[in-house]
């Protein structure tokens, strides 16, 4: 009898210890980056980690540009009991499967950077998106070019009244590549300039590919090129590498090159006078908004623009605003 009572007391103590351990253990939140080698996205994910530190057990996985690997990683994290997910899809057209998967486990999901279609996002009430408006970033990028040519008529090297440009495009199919391209050209046209495309090619967001593609454009078009439009900073810096190797940016030879992101190396190039301008792709606020969303969703709180602190549209999308960055405001906080 005595032993039985003792056993009951011990069991009660074990259960109490387990319950308090469970209450004290932080929630598990899973994060996937499409490719950890991506300069911009790794700064977004760094910010997410910073925000989550101390409140959650964050698992961060690199999907190494492989959508199948990402599905496996997400499944593993779900099996491990994550209570919310922040995923940077490898392929935005596969976002629908990620949404369905999270929904099947009733786990909220914040997609970042690669935007699912509105229809896909609407499939699950617990799915949200954080990124920028590619039309806005593209348009601002085009304005950088138009502003330059308006202030520097001599930049029209052959004086034909037409801007001869080459364009480095991000990954085909990515909304930021497709729409930035369209809208940057739209802004130049809206400012009253005519344009002629000498060359356009994808450089897959990468600096080394940007350098290679720019070297190719230079070999074909040489001095006929009057400006370089790039969908992101890494490719713009690659173009600058190729231009420098071919003798630009010394002895008064200048080429206007514009990008998007405002990464640290790009801001450095801007200060040094090679990059003409860039558009802020706000990694800090994108990381912060993604984290805040995941946290509210984990707590099963209804999300509004007010409690999130960022404007959210009726389709569960949060677009962080952009702005042009040039020498004039690069060091203004
Ligand atoms: C950024 C690129 C980045 C890409 C990744 C874009 O929004 O501007 O720098 O490589 O996202 O998906």
Give a written overview of the molecule.
With 333 residues, the chain is α/β, with parallel strands linked by helices. It folds into 2 domains: 23-132 and 282-320, Rossmann fold; 135-279, Response regulator (Rossmann fold). Helices cover 47% and strands 17% of the residues. The strands form 3 sheets. The chain has a 6-stranded parallel β-sheet, sandwiched between helices. The longest helix has 23 residues, at 2-24. The radius of gyration is 24 Å and the shape is elongated. The mean pLDDT is 94. Beta-D-glucopyranose binds next to helix 2.
Give structural attributes.
single chain, 333 residues, alpha/beta, Rossmann fold, 2 domains, 6-stranded parallel beta sheet, 4-stranded parallel beta sheet, 12 helices, 12 strands, elongated, binds beta-D-glucopyranose
Task: Summarize the structure in short.
The chain is of the alpha/beta class. It contains twelve helices and twelve strands. The chain has two domains: 23-132 and 282-320, 3-Layer(aba) Sandwich (Rossmann fold), CATH 3.40.50; 135-279, Response regulator (Rossmann fold, 3-Layer(aba) Sandwich), CATH 3.40.50.2300.
